[in-house]
Amino acid sequence: MDIVIITILSFTLSFIFALGGVGSAVVLIPVLTWLGVPFNLARPTGLFVNCVSMLGATWSNFKEKRLDVALGLPIIISSIILAPVGAWAGHLLPTRILLLVFIGFLLFSGTMMLFFKGSRYADQYREDRPVTGPLMVGVLAGFISGLLGVGGGGIISPLMILQGFNPKKVATVTALAIPFSSFSAFLAYAAMGSVSLRILLFAGLAAWGGGYLGTKVMQKKMSPHTVKKMLGVVLLLLGAKLLWTMA
Question: Which residue ranges traverse the bilayer (predicted)?
Fold first, then answer.
């Protein structure tokens, strides 16, 4: 597959999904497989792109002093631990089963982004905020990140919003947590030999720029609520398309 196409896709999808505060691997992986990249290679590529694009997003948030590290820490710790476990499980399971799980993930994430919201802690940034909820979100996000190569943003963002946290705050926490879970899972895939350094170099550089620019545009020009609804529609359509293809 032409490396130029991968680079363009990486930049464009990283920019679009950074508008919603999530990584682009959830769409990049099926697009790469449709274009001829093997699924076992598309997954670590998606993880690396997620890691780099959300580092760009986090750098933007750091410069603008929008980060809430205390809220993100439970998610980061638990997702780092569970991501390699998911990657190991993904290496053992048949591709068809993984694709079915991936479709379920798309439909779940799309539905959550479209229909669920909350506001219990929208303006609450005290030290006594709940820890158990974010911790369990990190467990689930880390395992799914490693299993499917999606980075976990599609789990973290909707579940944190469902718990009632401020959507813009959730976007910054998601961008902070994704690189950790993504890189942890990516290292597991690299240890199993499922990476292409040439693809990672070009896709990674493009993803950094896309994630950085997308976050700046989202915070200054767009409502994350609107963006998440748009992304939710995209994920549902993508899940339906994959399901139709496998039928």
Answer: 6-29, 41-59, 71-90, 97-116, 136-161, 197-215, 227-244
